[in-house]
Design a protein that fits this description.
Number of strands: 10
CATH class: Mainly Beta
CATH architecture: Sandwich
Number of domains: 1
Low-confidence stretches: 148-157
Distance between the termini: 77 Å
CATH topology: Immunoglobulin-like
Radius of gyration: 18 Å
Number of helices: 2
Length: about 160
């Protein structure tokens, strides 16, 4: 029994280890969808009905996650990562993970959260650091251009 206890503690320490990270993503779970915010950039990606949210991260580097929920208990789960964390309202859970290889990884909410729980899907797209930087820059440009484009179409009395 003592051997299992020690093995569990060692494994938990490794799972909760923090590494220096250049990328932080704030994940918010809400009624049957996800939002991924990249703090300090103005970039926010949300899913919608029939459109899973896509989180883009650099492959081969640690990514720091801040996970929360706006309404009920949800659970961030990507089967390929063999990793699951709960999103609890009023509480921010932090963890780090590294996606070793570029690719698309499907995920979902693994905590029954209501009638449309089965539609609470997500994708993690891991890309090289230069591809990530280019994607982030294009999203930042789109985020800053959107308000000015909308304001230019407002009729002036």
């Amino acid at each position: 029994m003592l051997v299992l206890f020690v093995a569990t503690l060692v494994t938990l320490d490794r799972m909760d280890a923090r590494e220096p990270s250049r990328t932080t993503v704030a994940i918010t779970a809400f009624d049957w969808q996800w939002r991924f915010d990249y703090p300090g950039t103005g970039v926010s990606v949300s899913g919608g009905p029939g459109t899973p949210a896509e989180m883009v991260v650099p492959a081969g580097e640690p990514v720091h996650i801040e996970l929360g929920s706006n309404d009920v208990d949800h659970s961030f789960y990507v089967p390929a990562f063999l990793f699951k964390r709960d999103a609890i309202p009023g509480r921010v859970t932090t963890f780090d993970f590294t996606v070793e290889a570029p690719g698309n990884y499907r995920g979902q909410c693994a905590e029954f959260c209501g009638v449309q729980h089965d539609r609470m899907l997500l994708t993690v797209r891991a890309v090289t650091r230069p591809e990530f930087d280019a994607w982030l820059a294009s999203q930042e440009s789109a985020a800053t251009a959107a308000p000015s484009a909308a304001s230019s179409t407002v009729p002036v009395p």
